[in-house]
Amino acid sequence: MPSDRLPRDGGVRPSETRTEMTWIVMPGQTNALGTVFGGQVMAWIDVCAAVSAQRFARCTVVTAGMDSLNFRAPMRQGNIAVLRASVNWAGHSSMEVGVRVEREDAITGERTHTSSAYLTFVALDSRGNKVRLPTLSPETDEEIRRHHEAEMRREARLRHKEDVKNRRAAR
Amino acid sequence: MPSDRLPRDGGVRPSETRTEMTWIVMPGQTNALGTVFGGQVMAWIDVCAAVSAQRFARCTVVTAGMDSLNFRAPMRQGNIAVLRASVNWAGHSSMEVGVRVEREDAITGERTHTSSAYLTFVALDSRGNKVRLPTLSPETDEEIRRHHEAEMRREARLRHKEDVKNRRAAR
Amino acid sequence: MPSDRLPRDGGVRPSETRTEMTWIVMPGQTNALGTVFGGQVMAWIDVCAAVSAQRFARCTVVTAGMDSLNFRAPMRQGNIAVLRASVNWAGHSSMEVGVRVEREDAITGERTHTSSAYLTFVALDSRGNKVRLPTLSPETDEEIRRHHEAEMRREARLRHKEDVKNRRAAR
Amino acid sequence: MPSDRLPRDGGVRPSETRTEMTWIVMPGQTNALGTVFGGQVMAWIDVCAAVSAQRFARCTVVTAGMDSLNFRAPMRQGNIAVLRASVNWAGHSSMEVGVRVEREDAITGERTHTSSAYLTFVALDSRGNKVRLPTLSPETDEEIRRHHEAEMRREARLRHKEDVKNRRAAR
Amino acid sequence: MPSDRLPRDGGVRPSETRTEMTWIVMPGQTNALGTVFGGQVMAWIDVCAAVSAQRFARCTVVTAGMDSLNFRAPMRQGNIAVLRASVNWAGHSSMEVGVRVEREDAITGERTHTSSAYLTFVALDSRGNKVRLPTLSPETDEEIRRHHEAEMRREARLRHKEDVKNRRAAR
Amino acid sequence: MPSDRLPRDGGVRPSETRTEMTWIVMPGQTNALGTVFGGQVMAWIDVCAAVSAQRFARCTVVTAGMDSLNFRAPMRQGNIAVLRASVNWAGHSSMEVGVRVEREDAITGERTHTSSAYLTFVALDSRGNKVRLPTLSPETDEEIRRHHEAEMRREARLRHKEDVKNRRAAR
Question: Pick from B38, B44, B65: which is nearest to A69 by CB?
Answer without folding.
Answer: B65
